[in-house]
């Protein structure tokens, strides 16, 4: 047959000449940077599509599935016709009529080598057999048979998790999993378990991949992590809602806070303890995982299950100091079963902090009943070199009513510049701002813009006022009602305004943090953070002399080091307000660190960086005044050898990082971080 050319390079597959299409792989995948010849020969990637599953009258289950590359071309399971042996494992489970959770047919008895106890666990099938039906198409007959009289009307599901080893081609191990559901009696699948989607977990975790990397979906996790599965070493259930709640509660889990440890013993007796975990969104923020804000096809079918179906198991996994049998820490009300949970714990009540599920989990600082604070910088006058800028602003609550500056508990204006790369700042209280009428107020800075200043400067606004919630009740509390930061950039010489480059976006921060709020709720927008966290800034003013030298708090260096905390090869602490030490050596990043665009926008991680950026003052670093590129990269790559590498490739003239690590270079940032 005549070959059909559809790209730059081609390979013969099944008699047809096929090419490697552009854009097939993400820039975070190693295959995106492989040569066309390698891609066309290896055809990296892995996909599985289940065609059908059959359950015979004697309980024999047979699944027919297709192995393919991302383009849909068939792959050989044994790695003979196409490179890379493909390992596949199968789990078979059902959702009984009287349950909302799966019960696995494929199980094992796991005996602890620590205490000798045994426990039943959902597991992959054993003793099955494969048939090759066609190119890339296979049938798997389970070694496990369905029991006599199994419910043919129940939802049944098969999980296939798989791996394809391409390490010999420097393409790593490719993973994939998929779940296929059907009703043996025929008809549509109606009953599902669809509470939290994989995409929601991946907002923080980038790409979940547990138990060696092959389990990559929540849809698959729920088939094994069921109430029937227990860790024999600790006696803890690994039922998904209970386990995940406890893990994410971490140090806030009552039993952990009381000095206990929540641990699971995994493969090879590896202990996984979660008593130091901090859920950065906040323990009350159920919506971070149970995201009821999702719409359309992205919204799970049971997105509101946590609101409509409270249970002792799910709720008690976070509130593990509650004794439902005796009523301890449950207003002395025993709860022998789940039948009456929803009587008191309705989805939404009439007020915040009530017994309703939504109400009980309101984060005080974001309570809807707070009056709110809204900032606006109306104008900046005298914003020229050598002059004291005069700022006109408004303060309003969320109802649009004016707030007097003196009624704010804290109100500050920050002047920083130049915007090309902030080098200094000054913060002044604006609580005594003059009333300019019409709800407007003016503050004239006591500090002047430097006489030698050029380019653009920025003024940022921050503050809060204390508010009382549940006034007059036994649960009355005072919280900080903070405003969203606003900034205004202006040209000091009357020319065009030059805004600071945008490196990260707060929306990306809030994918994990839900609502990023630091320094006593004052700082909540990246544009405000960078006014102070400039290349010249250290914690010298707060650090005790005995702990010198000072630590850099340059934004790029600091954020990289915090998010790489448990990988840092040197002690990393910052001293903050009140000379309080904040140590980040145990901080963990829940996602994949090398995927820079989890935080970065506008390809700002690429080299070279903008010209004219300042060197960073880093007294505790191996390099005490690294260039901006060196400082950013050694924030994560913090070893002595990495510092030596950047030292060799930079000097008083500048940095040569982009020679090797530029966006089109062999060792570009994206390429060396690809997986």
Task: Give the SSE layout.
Layout: E1 10-13, E2 16-19, H1 36-42, E3 47-55, E4 61-68, E5 86-95, E6 103-104, E7 107-111, E8 118-122, E9 129-134, E10 137-141, E11 155-165, E12 173-182, H2 198-205, H3 218-224, H4 240-249, H5 254-257, E13 263-265, E14 271-273, H6 305-308, H7 312-318, H8 341-344, H9 357-360, E15 374-381, E16 390-396, E17 410-417, E18 424-429, E19 434-437, E20 440-444, E21 456-469, E22 477-482, E23 486-491, H10 506-513, H11 526-532, H12 555-563, E24 573-575, E25 581-583, H13 628-636, H14 640-648, E26 650-651, E27 654-655, H15 657-661, H16 669-673
Antiparallel strand pairs: 1-2, 3-4, 4-10, 5-6, 5-11, 7-8, 9-10, 11-12, 13-14, 15-16, 16-20, 17-18, 17-21, 19-20, 21-22, 21-23, 24-25, 26-27
Report what the structure shows.
With 675 residues, the protein is α+β, with helices and mostly antiparallel strands. The protein has four domains: 1-42, no CATH class; 43-238, Sandwich (Immunoglobulin-like); 374-527, Immunoglobulin-like (Sandwich); 533-673, no CATH class. Strands 17, 18, 21, 22 and 23 form a five-stranded antiparallel sheet that branches. The chain has a four-stranded antiparallel sheet with strand order 3-4-10-9, with no helix packed on it. It has a four-stranded antiparallel sheet with strand order 6-5-11-12, covered by helices on one side. Residues 1-21 have low confidence and may be disordered.
Task: Write out key terms for the chains shown.
675 residues, alpha+beta, Immunoglobulin-like, 4 domains, 5-stranded antiparallel sheet, 4-stranded antiparallel sheet, 24% strand, disordered N terminus
């Amino acid at each position: 047959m005549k070959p059909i050319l559809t790209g730059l390079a081609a390979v013969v597959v099944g008699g047809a000449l096929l090419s490697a299409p552009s854009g097939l792989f993400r820039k975070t995948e190693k295959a995106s940077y492989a040569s066309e010849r390698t891609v066309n020969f290896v055809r990296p990637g892995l996909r599985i599509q289940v065609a059908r599953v059959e359950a015979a009258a004697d309980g024999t289950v047979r699944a027919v599935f297709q192995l393919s590359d991302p383009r849909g071309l068939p792959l050989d399971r044994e790695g003979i016709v196409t490179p890379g042996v493909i390992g596949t494992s199968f789990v078979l489970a059902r959702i009984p009529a009287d349950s909302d959770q799966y019960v696995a047919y494929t199980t094992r008895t796991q005996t602890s080598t620590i205490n000798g106890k045994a426990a039943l666990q959902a597991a992959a099938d054993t003793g099955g057999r494969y048939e090759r039906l066609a190119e890339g198409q296979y049938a798997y007959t389970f070694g496990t048979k369905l029991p006599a009289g199994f419910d043919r009307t129940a939802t049944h599901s098969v999980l296939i998790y798989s791996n394809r080893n391409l390490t010999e081609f420097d393409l790593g191990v490719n993973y994939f999993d998929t779940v296929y559901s059907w009703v043996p009696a025929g008809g549509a699948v109606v009953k599902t378990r669809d509470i939290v989607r994989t995409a929601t977990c991946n907002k923080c975790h980038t790409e979940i991949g547990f138990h060696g990397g092959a389990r990559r979906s929540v849809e698959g996790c729920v088939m094994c992590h069921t109430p029937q599965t227990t860790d024999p070493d600790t006696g803890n259930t690994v039922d998904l809602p209970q386990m995940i709640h406890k893990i994410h509660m971490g140090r806030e889990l009552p039993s952990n806070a009381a000095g206990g440890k929540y641990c699971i013993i995994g493969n090879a007796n590896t202990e996984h303890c979660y008593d130091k975990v901090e859920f950065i969104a906040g323990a009350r923020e159920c919506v971070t995982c149970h995201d009821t804000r999702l719409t359309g096809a992205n919204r799970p079918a049971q997105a509101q299950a946590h609101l409509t179906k409270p249970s002792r198991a799910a709720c008690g996994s976070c509130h593990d100091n509650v004794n439902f049998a005796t009523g301890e820490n449950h207003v002395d009300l025993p709860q022998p079963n789940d039948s009456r949970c929803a009587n008191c714990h309705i989805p939404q009540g009439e007020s915040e902090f009530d017994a309703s599920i939504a109400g009980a989990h309101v984060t005080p600082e974001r309570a809807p009943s707070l009056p709110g604070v809204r900032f606006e910088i109306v104008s900046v006058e005298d914003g020229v070199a050598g002059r004291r800028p005069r700022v006109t602003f408004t303060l309003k609550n969320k109802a649009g009513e004016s707030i007097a500056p003196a009624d704010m508990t804290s109100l500050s204006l920050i002047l920083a510049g130049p915007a090309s790369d902030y080098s200094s700042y000054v913060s002044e209280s604006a609580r005594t701002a003059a009333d300019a009428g019409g709800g407007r107020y003016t503050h004239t800075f006591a500090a002047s813009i430097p006489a030698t200043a050029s380019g653009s400067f920025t003024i940022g606004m921050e503050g809060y006022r204390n508010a009382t919630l549940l006034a007059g009740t036994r649960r009355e509390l005072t919280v900080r009602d903070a405003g969203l930061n606003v900034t205004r950039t202006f040209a000091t010489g009357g020319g065009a305004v030059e805004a600071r480059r945008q490196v990260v976006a707060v929306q990306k921060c809030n994918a994990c943090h839900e609502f990023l709020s630091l320094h006593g709720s004052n700082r909540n927008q990246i544009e405000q953070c960078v006014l102070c966290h400039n290349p010249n800034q250290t914690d010298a003013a707060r650090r005790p002399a005995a702990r010198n030298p000072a630590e850099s708090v340059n934004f790029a260096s600091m954020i990289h080091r915090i998010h790489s905390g448990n990988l840092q090869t040197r002690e990393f602490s910052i001293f903050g307000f009140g000379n309080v030490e904040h140590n980040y050596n145990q901080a963990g990043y829940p996602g994949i660190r090398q995927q820079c665009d989890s935080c970065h926008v506008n390809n700002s991680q690429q080299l070279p960086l903008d010209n004219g950026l300042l060197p960073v003052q880093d007294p505790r670093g191996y390099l005490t005044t690294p260039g901006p590129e060196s400082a950013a990269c050694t924030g994560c790559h913090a070893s002595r050898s990495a510092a030596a590498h950047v030292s060799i490739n930079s000097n008083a003239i500048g940095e040569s990082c982009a020679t090797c690590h530029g966006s089109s270079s062999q060792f570009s940032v994206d390429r060396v971080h690809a997986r």
